[in-house]
Amino acid sequence: MEEARCELQDNDWYMTMEELDAFIAVLYIRGAIGAHNLDLDSLWSIKWGNPIIKATMSRNRFREIMKYLRFDHKSSRRQRLNEDKFAMISDICYEFIANAQACYIPGPYITIDEQLFPSKCRCRFTQFIRSKPDKYGQKFWMAVDKDANYIINAFPYLGKDDHKPNGERLGDWVVKKLMEPYINKGRTCTHTLLFAQLITPDRTNHGLHGFVVPIRDPDTLETFVIFNQYRIPRENLLNRTADVTPDGQYESSFSDPSRILGAALENLSAGRIGIMQESCLTLASAAAIAVRYAATRRQFGDEDNEIPLLEYELHQWRLFGHVAAAVVFRIYVESFTRIYLNIVEKSLAGLQMEDLSDAVSEIHAMVSSSKPLLSWRALDAVQQCREACGGHGYLKCANFGDLRNNHEPTVTYEGDNNVLSQQAGNWLLRQQASAAAGRAVSTPLGTVAFLASKERILKETFKNIDTGSLRNRNFITSTYQWLLCWLLQETNNKYDQELAKGLSKFHAKAKSQVYRWRELTCAYAEYLVLIFTWESIDKKEPSLRPVLERLAIFYGLWALDKHLVLLYEGGFATGGNLSRLLRQAILEACAQLKDDVVTVVDALAPTDFVLNSVLGKSDGNLYQNLQKQLFHSPGAMERASWWKDILPHSKL
Asked: Where is the PiggyBac transposable element-derived protein domain (predicted)?
């Protein structure tokens, strides 16, 4: 109506909803009888016209509505067309697509192609395609159900699109965009791979094996997964390493027990190591976004001279620990993965290895403690880095929300972190028992070799008098060794106390988790990170060692700060000297890292395309990138669809 009133200079021009329904009905009838190419006058012809159309609406009224019918607001059209060539009909078009998706579930096969809708009207995105019969028209990319020919997604070709990533082929981008509503929705997921204990009819438990489990009828698109005495056929056992005969006999593919151990190690740990690697990437991405933002964003300071956030000591203290963690975690995971793959390769190849069983147990303990530490720290880092970006961190285009949503499940899958910590604790307590009994500690990788000197280590106390003596490997390593020895002793004492009360081993372990078992495995994982990192740093190029050493030292101090209560509780330190010097050393380390931290995150960060954050682009143009993103977001220049819902109602 706005268009007609403006063109006709008639504020009384009006169209009822009944007339609009009738107009749409005529269009439907026109298509149903195959008259879409006929002249309009023919449809209302006295002799040859369609009686239903003539009874529905007069020809002149139909022409009038068609002339003035618009799907946007004329007052804001000019501004919106500068940003979106499709602005005049984008709202109704995308609403139509949304309704099409809501009202129809496509079959298993979806086809994608382009279609030219013939038209010679004046339009900003009219195409001329010589090979098409009609030559001129508007081109749409469309996704259609193969069997029903039902449209499930479409968008127009408007020329160069700023949203298409640089370097990505147009065809790939079109397919991904059209299939967005159906990607990661489990449409093609009919089976899952899970690990379970294999128990043969003779009641022998053969340990963890992989099974292919059907989770959906292939002909059912929507489903729930509930396992309730669900029978898995024998044929669904993944039998690369072992199989079960039809009569229930277990057959191993390996005659050498060491190769069976290697296969078990691969099954148990491969997925968890993958999560550790993923956690490193998530942590590095979050730290890169926050540090780049802090280096560019200016707030407060002297008049006409605002200071970058990165210059504030508080901001450094909030972020630099996560930057250091991103570096040392990555070094640790790369180093540990090489050791793990080397052992698996030798085991599966049948090569003789001394203490293979002990090595497998130690690697399992390392993975079971490291996966919780890395995934928890990455989750904490995403939250802290988001907060460090202020209100901008909440933006969808900042990518913190997606980073957190994608990472958060890792703390519970492939073994819940708290349960995995208990498995690592079991191995540590066994080594502590061996050391207490005077037997050799079973540590082929040497991660707890210091337990042989447990009595001497526990007699050590804090005697440092300045921060310089804290910022070195020896102090951090010896402090962690003392902490681990003391936690092992306290955890074992707590466990024995619960057993003395008459509790079973299971319940005694359950009562020993809080403040003891959990802290023990976290401290062990932090110690692993540090010793593997330092070993790797010593092999790096001399030019890289100083900054890597500062980062490793900073991480060690930052991690020890979280254990101050335990260090005082165990008697390692008395008075306030340790806490005062430790925290002063952390702040001094912040000042030392400030000039290098942007370069460090640039080395860690993925490409801008992968990082996908307007706050963390490598070009440093924070404000320009933010403005461009906001201006080009769909609907940015329009009213929200629900704006009428918040208008105050008349009180009359």
From this structure: 15-188
The count of C-alpha atoms lying within 13 angstroms of the C-alpha of 561, restricted to the half-sphere facing its C-beta, is 16
Residue 304 near residue 433 (C-beta atoms within 8 A): no
pLDDT of 180-218, one tens digit each? 888 777 667 778 887 788 888 888 887 777 888 888 766
Question: Which residues face 116 on adjacent strands?
Answer: 139
Q: What is the pLDDT of residue 328?
A: 95
**Cα dist. 631→79, 392, 591, 613, 635 in Å?**
11, 15, 38, 16, 9
pLDDT above 90 (res 557): yes
Backbone angles phi, psi at 594, to 5 degrees: -55, -45
H or E element that contains 533 = helix 518-537
Confidence of residue 562 (pLDDT cuts 50, 70, 90): very high
CB 209 within 8 A of CB 196: yes
Q: What is the DSSP string of 216-229?
A: S-TT-SS-----SS
- Tokens, residue 576: 């306030």
pTM > 0.85: yes or no: no
SS3 string, 48-84, reads CCCHHHHHHCCHHHHHHHHHHCCCCCHHHHHHHHHHC
Strands 151-156, 136-145: pairing kind = antiparallel
SS3 content of the chain, % helix, strand, coil (to 5): 60, 10, 35
Structure tokens belonging to residue 542: 């001399």
Q: How far, in Å, CA of 161 to CA of 624, rounded?
A: 18
Name, in order, each residue with C-beta under 8 angstroms of 269's C-beta and a sequence gap of 6 or more: 340, 363, 364, 367
**Domains of the chain listed by start with CATH number:** 2-69 (no CATH), 104-188 (no CATH), 191-253 (2.40.110.10), 259-608 (1.20.140.10)
The more confident residue out of 492 and 187 is 492
Quote the CA–CA distance of 527 and 512 in Å, as a whole number. 21
Query: Helix, strand, or coil here: 422?
Result: helix
3-state secondary structure of 173: helix
Q: 253 vs 239, 246, 263, 348, 383, CA distance in Å?
A: 8, 16, 10, 11, 47
Give the model's confidence band at 267: pLDDT under 50 very low, under 70 low, under 90 confident, else very high.
low
d(CA 277, CA 597): 22
Q: How far apart are CA 478 and CA 567, in angstroms?
A: 12
3-state secondary structure of 141: strand
Which residues are paired to 191 by β-bridges? Answer: 214
Dihedrals phi, psi of 261, to nearest 5 degrees: -60, -40
CB of 237 closer than 8 Å to CB of 244 = yes
CA distance 154 to 98: 10
Span 113-167, pLDDT tens digits: 888 877 766 676 777 777 777 778 888 888 998 888 888 888 888 777 766 777 7
The alpha carbon dihedral of 49, 51, 53, 56 has a sign of positive
State the pLDDT at residue 581: 92
Question: CA-to-CA distance for 232 and 213, rounded, in angstroms?
Answer: 7
C-alpha to C-alpha distance for 618 and 292, rounded to whole angstroms = 8
Q: Decide if 141 contacts 157 (C-beta within 8 A).
A: yes
